[in-house]
């Protein structure tokens, strides 16, 4: 449940930023924002690579078992 909670909290933050942009006010972003953004991008890349690797192994095992 924690990943879903984090996703919904992030979506709420994004919707708030979009609403501020629509009102003509740019939301302020400090150094922490950019650090978390970089960590999120790196985590996404690492997770994507891990999922791809696991899927390839599963496909390869399925081919060997046939």
State the share of residues found in helices, binned by percent.
over 70%
Mean pLDDT: 88
Q: From N to C, what is the helix and strand string?
A: HH
* Structure classification: mainly alpha
Number of E strands: 0
- Percent range for β-strand residues: under 5%
What is the straight-line distance between the termini?
36 Å
Based on Cα principal axes, name the global outline: elongated
- Radius of gyration, rounded? 19 Å
Number of domains: 1
Query: Biggest sheet, in brief?
Result: none
Q: Uncertain spans, ≥5 residues at pLDDT below 50?
A: none
Helical stretch tally: 2
In short:
This protein has two helices and no strands. The chain has helices at residues 2-22, 31-65.
Q: Could you list some keywords that capture this structure?
A:
66 residues; single chain; 0% strand; mainly alpha
Please explain how this structure is put together.
- The protein contains two helices and no strands.
- The chain is elongated, with a radius of gyration of 19 Å.
- The protein starts with a helix and ends with a helix.
- With 66 residues, the chain is mostly helical.
- The chain has one domain (2-65).
- Helices cover 85% and strands 0% of the residues.
- It has helices at 2-22, 31-65.
- The model has no long low-confidence stretch (mean pLDDT 88).
């Amino acid at each position: 449940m924690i990943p879903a909670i984090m996703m919904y909290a992030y979506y709420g933050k994004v919707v708030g930023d979009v609403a501020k942009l629509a009102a003509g006010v740019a939301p302020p972003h400090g150094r922490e924002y950019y650090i978390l953004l970089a960590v999120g991008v790196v985590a996404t890349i690492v997770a994507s690579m891990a999922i791809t690797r696991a899927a390839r192994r599963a496909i390869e095992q399925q081919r060997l078992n046939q």
